[in-house]
Design goal:
Helices cover 36% and strands 22% of the residues. The protein has 126 residues and is of the alpha/beta class. The two termini are 26 Å apart.
Protein backbone atom coordinates (compact mmCIF):
# COMPACT_ATOMS: atom_id res chain seq x y z
CA UNK A 1 0.00 0.00 0.00
CA UNK A 2 1.39 3.39 -0.95
CA UNK A 3 1.51 6.35 1.40
CA UNK A 4 -1.28 8.02 -0.59
CA UNK A 5 -3.51 4.94 -0.15
CA UNK A 6 -3.13 5.10 3.63
CA UNK A 7 -4.00 8.81 4.03
CA UNK A 8 -7.02 9.48 6.23
CA UNK A 9 -9.42 12.20 5.15
CA UNK A 10 -9.79 13.90 8.54
CA UNK A 11 -10.21 17.49 7.32
CA UNK A 12 -13.68 17.04 5.79
CA UNK A 13 -15.63 20.31 5.74
CA UNK A 14 -12.57 22.29 6.90
CA UNK A 15 -11.66 25.66 5.45
CA UNK A 16 -7.87 26.10 5.53
CA UNK A 17 -5.77 29.22 5.08
CA UNK A 18 -2.27 28.53 3.70
CA UNK A 19 0.18 31.38 4.32
CA UNK A 20 3.27 30.61 2.26
CA UNK A 21 5.38 32.84 0.00
CA UNK A 22 6.81 30.07 -2.19
CA UNK A 23 4.17 29.21 -4.82
CA UNK A 24 5.39 25.64 -5.34
CA UNK A 25 5.15 24.90 -1.61
CA UNK A 26 1.77 26.59 -1.39
CA UNK A 27 0.41 24.36 -4.17
CA UNK A 28 2.05 21.29 -2.63
CA UNK A 29 0.25 22.10 0.61
CA UNK A 30 -3.00 22.55 -1.29
CA UNK A 31 -2.61 19.10 -2.86
CA UNK A 32 -1.92 17.56 0.56
CA UNK A 33 -4.86 19.33 2.19
CA UNK A 34 -7.23 18.27 -0.60
CA UNK A 35 -6.02 14.69 -0.17
CA UNK A 36 -6.73 15.01 3.57
CA UNK A 37 -10.27 16.13 2.75
CA UNK A 38 -10.21 19.93 3.15
CA UNK A 39 -13.30 21.53 1.63
CA UNK A 40 -11.75 24.94 0.92
CA UNK A 41 -8.19 26.20 0.71
CA UNK A 42 -7.28 29.87 0.48
CA UNK A 43 -3.77 31.18 -0.11
CA UNK A 44 -1.85 34.24 1.05
CA UNK A 45 1.81 34.99 0.34
CA UNK A 46 2.30 37.98 2.65
CA UNK A 47 1.27 39.04 6.13
CA UNK A 48 -0.93 41.79 4.67
CA UNK A 49 -2.68 39.37 2.32
CA UNK A 50 -3.20 36.86 5.14
CA UNK A 51 -4.68 39.52 7.42
CA UNK A 52 -6.99 40.59 4.58
CA UNK A 53 -8.09 36.96 4.14
CA UNK A 54 -8.84 36.80 7.86
CA UNK A 55 -10.85 40.03 7.62
CA UNK A 56 -12.88 38.48 4.79
CA UNK A 57 -13.54 35.12 6.43
CA UNK A 58 -12.33 33.06 9.36
CA UNK A 59 -10.81 29.68 8.43
CA UNK A 60 -11.17 26.53 10.52
CA UNK A 61 -7.42 25.88 10.37
CA UNK A 62 -4.24 27.55 9.07
CA UNK A 63 -0.77 26.52 7.93
CA UNK A 64 1.74 29.34 8.42
CA UNK A 65 5.22 29.60 6.94
CA UNK A 66 7.25 31.49 9.55
CA UNK A 67 9.38 33.50 7.10
CA UNK A 68 7.51 35.24 4.29
CA UNK A 69 10.26 36.82 2.21
CA UNK A 70 11.97 38.19 5.32
CA UNK A 71 8.72 39.16 7.05
CA UNK A 72 7.65 37.08 10.06
CA UNK A 73 4.15 35.60 10.11
CA UNK A 74 3.55 36.31 13.81
CA UNK A 75 0.91 39.05 13.33
CA UNK A 76 -1.20 36.43 11.52
CA UNK A 77 -0.57 33.92 14.31
CA UNK A 78 -1.68 36.51 16.87
CA UNK A 79 -4.91 37.16 14.99
CA UNK A 80 -5.61 33.43 14.63
CA UNK A 81 -4.89 32.82 18.31
CA UNK A 82 -7.25 35.65 19.35
CA UNK A 83 -9.98 34.17 17.14
CA UNK A 84 -9.45 30.65 18.49
CA UNK A 85 -8.34 29.27 15.10
CA UNK A 86 -5.89 26.38 15.28
CA UNK A 87 -2.72 26.53 13.20
CA UNK A 88 0.66 24.96 12.57
CA UNK A 89 3.89 26.68 11.64
CA UNK A 90 6.18 25.46 8.87
CA UNK A 91 9.85 26.38 8.63
CA UNK A 92 13.12 24.97 7.40
CA UNK A 93 14.67 25.81 10.76
CA UNK A 94 12.42 23.61 12.90
CA UNK A 95 11.60 24.63 16.47
CA UNK A 96 14.85 26.64 16.60
CA UNK A 97 13.40 28.99 13.97
CA UNK A 98 10.38 29.94 16.09
CA UNK A 99 10.19 33.00 18.32
CA UNK A 100 10.20 31.84 21.97
CA UNK A 101 6.69 33.26 22.45
CA UNK A 102 5.43 30.57 20.02
CA UNK A 103 7.73 27.72 21.13
CA UNK A 104 4.85 25.58 22.42
CA UNK A 105 3.13 25.59 19.02
CA UNK A 106 3.29 22.74 16.52
CA UNK A 107 6.05 23.14 13.93
CA UNK A 108 6.27 21.02 10.78
CA UNK A 109 9.85 21.25 9.53
CA UNK A 110 10.56 21.74 5.85
CA UNK A 111 11.02 19.79 3.72
CA UNK A 112 7.90 17.90 4.80
CA UNK A 113 5.76 15.19 3.29
CA UNK A 114 2.10 14.36 3.73
CA UNK A 115 2.85 12.09 6.68
CA UNK A 116 4.65 14.86 8.55
CA UNK A 117 1.91 17.38 7.75
CA UNK A 118 -0.78 14.89 8.79
CA UNK A 119 0.95 14.30 12.14
CA UNK A 120 1.25 18.05 12.79
CA UNK A 121 -2.35 18.77 11.86
CA UNK A 122 -3.72 15.88 13.88
CA UNK A 123 -1.75 17.07 16.90
CA UNK A 124 -3.06 20.62 16.64
CA UNK A 125 -6.62 19.37 16.15
CA UNK A 126 -6.57 16.97 19.07
Amino acid sequence: MSEADSVQRFLDRFSVLVVEDEAIISFLLEDMLVELGAAEIRHAATVAAALAELDARRPDLAVLDVNLGGERVYPVAERLEAAGVRFVFTTGYGKAGIDPRWAARIVVQKPFDIGMMTAGLKTVLS
